[in-house]
Structure formats: structure tokens, C-alpha cells
Amino acid sequence: xxxxxxxxxxxxxxxxxxxxxxxxxxxxxxxxxxxxxxxxxxxxxxxxxxxxxxxxxxxxxxxxxxxxxxxxxxxxxxxxxxxxxxxxxxxxxxxxxxxxxxxxxxxxxxxxxxxxxxxxxxxxxxxxxxxxxxxxxxxxxxxxxxxxxxxxxxxxxxxxxxxxxxxxxxxxxxxxxxxxxxxxxxxxxxxxxxxxxxxxxxx
Length: 203
Known about the structure:
The structure is a single chain. This protein is α+β, with helices and mostly antiparallel strands. It has 2 domains: 47 residues; 141 residues, Immunoglobulins (Immunoglobulin-like). It is 23% helix and 39% strand. The strands form 4 sheets. A 6-stranded mixed β-sheet has the order 3-13-12-6-9-8, with no helix packed on it. It has a 3-stranded antiparallel β-sheet with strand order 1-2-4, with no helix packed on it. The longest helix has 25 residues. 27% of the residues are buried.
């Protein structure tokens, strides 16, 4: 009876963990552009009325192998979502802001890939005025370019949300996703333990 209860409990933990890990993952609007040597993904973002989005907005980049680029640049153009504006993040790169809905960031340094993913490259801040309307959506067209590379363009959706209704994104999403995976692992370990060590693990 105790083993049956343990199996049910750990099974529930496993399901909960799997759901958390799935829900917390970032959304992608313009899909994924797969190229050679560079691929890119364009995440969606939510911004609270009268505040700033938790996450920075920028393309995620990765390569098919070791790659070096020069003259890298990311251009952001926002349409829709009245009251929302784009602001340079003040991080890496040199950014200019021709208008509240357009930012262009360039990187004077060499961009090097060693097989890893660069998340939010040359990102911008997304802010919403107090007059912005909850539920409004806009589209940010993002273009990544570099010397000798055909420009890569995608879109990210910007959604205005209530100040107290922020979706879990960025670092918090990672935390919850990690907790979900931890629960999933705990469930799996518990089920295996309930089977009285019928399976042997080799590290």
C-alpha cells in the first residue's frame, strides 16, 4: 500500500513538472530562420501598462559551426501598440534611436560563434506609457545583418498587459522551468525507487 501511494504521489509530481517546464518556455512569433552559417529566432514579449518589459527584446542567434562575423547590426521597427516605445538598453553595441519606434544597434567588435547560442543579441528595452491599452498588440520587425551575410529578418509580437498580470518570462521563466524539471526528475526517481531498484544506473 505504501508503494502504491508513493507511485501515485511521484507520478503526480512528474506530470506537474512536465507541465511547468512546457508552459514556462519562451514563445516565438516570427518562427525560426534556419540558415548557413547563422540561424535566428525571434521571441515574443509582454510589457505592462506604464512600465518596462521584464525581458530585453533581441534575436537569438546560433551557428552551424565556428563562425566569425564583422559589422554586425540589428534593426528594430515597431508598428501598432499605441503608447509603446523602443529604447536602447545601454549594453553592448552602439545604438541610435531615429524615432520612438525605431532603434538601430551596431557592434564594432567581432562577433564570434563557437557552437553556442547568443540570446538577445544587441537588445532593446520595451516600454509602455500609462496611456497604453491592455490587450493591444504590436509587431517588431527585427533584421540582423553583417558583412558577407544576407540579412535575416523576423518578427516579434509585443503585447500590452496589466501591471499586475505580467506573464512569467526571462529569468523567472528559467527558474520555474528549472523547478518543473526538478519535479519531473523527482517523480522519475521516486517511481524507480518504488520498484525496489529493479534498474541499475551507471554514471
